[in-house]
Amino acid sequence: MTAQDVIADLVADAEDIDRMIAGLDESQWTRPTPAEGWTVAHQVGHLAFVFRIAGLAAASPEAFKGLTKRIGTGFGAFDKAVNAALDEYLALSREALVARWRTERDAGVAALAAVPDGTLVPWLVRPIPAPVLCAAGMTEMFAHGQDIADALGVERKHTDRIKRIVGFVVHTWDFGYQSNGLTPPADQFRFDISAPSGAQWVFGPADAAQTITGPAVDLCLLAGRRRHHADLGLVATGPDAQAWLELAQAYRGPAGKGRAPGQFVTSRQPV
């Protein structure tokens, strides 16, 4: 796969968000989501801001470094910056915020697509390749898109594009330990994951003693902390893997409360 393939997947996931929020009325726009204190509008504003700073990092690395210097790179600093930026977005009308999301999304995607192959892009902790930053953006859209879907009572349809997000979850498997002030196990896990198409994806050492097995969507819901592991079809083998189910998160910063067991009903309307 090339960097442009990752860009195409990023664009397709962004279009899924667009379809979900198109035509919402004011009551839906202001509907609370499972993220405490956040409405659908908060979620869209958050995603717009993420694409805004990703585009800045790709197009103007020095300006991005100046931004991170101002907001800090300590634990939870990015969350504080996001929350501070939300006021700017929430002051907009519904139509203006949707337009802002599309503008900043498109600008961010264009900037990421223009990064030469092999070039590292500055990011919150360390520079990363543009395709990895694209996967991080897809992970953000997966998690916050799920909050929107839960608020609206719709069921999302996933494709094998989700492999990008699964790969990012595996890449960040130790973030949950860092968030809780714990030392990750010395040995990495193996992930045996079922794709939406039925294909099998394997990540990690073939001889790993600790394994996580189950559906790709469930793994991403777990690592996004959008579902409790008790409600997912994931099987952990080994004590470290079993403990990881409680800690997993694919983002830096505070874990938050996550979701409670049995919090969500299974009857949904398709998007």
Give a short synopsis of this structure.
It contains eleven helices and eight strands.
List the helices and strands and how they pair.
Elements: H1 3-21, H2 26-29, H3 40-59, H4 61-71, H5 77-90, H6 94-113, E1 120-121, E2 128-129, H7 130-152, E3 154-155, H8 163-171, H9 175-179, E4 190-194, E5 200-203, E6 211-215, H10 216-223, E7 235-237, H11 239-247, E8 269-270
Structure report:
The protein has 2 domains: 155 residues, Four Helix Bundle (Hemerythrin (Met), subunit A); 96 residues, 2-Layer Sandwich (Nonspecific Lipid-transfer Protein, Chain A). It contains 11 helices and 8 strands. The longest helix is centred in the middle third of the chain and has 23 residues. Strand 1 and strand 2 form a beta hairpin. The strands form 3 sheets. A 4-stranded mixed β-sheet has the order 5-4-6-7. Strands 1-2 form a two-stranded antiparallel ribbon. Strands 3-8 form a two-stranded parallel ribbon. It has 271 residues and is of the alpha/beta class. Helix 1 packs parallel to helix 7, helix 3 packs across helix 4 and helix 7 crosses helix 8. It is globular, with a radius of gyration of 18 Å. It is 52% helix and 9% strand. The two termini are 29 Å apart. The mean pLDDT is 92.
Strand content: 5-15%
Q: Main sheet?
A: 4 strands, mixed
Mind telling me the CATH class of the largest domain?
Mainly Alpha
Please give the count of helices.
Answer: 11
**Strand order, largest beta sheet:** 5-4-6-7
What is the number of E strands? 8
What are the defining features of this structure?
9% strand; two-stranded antiparallel ribbon; 2 domains; 271 residues; four-stranded mixed β-sheet
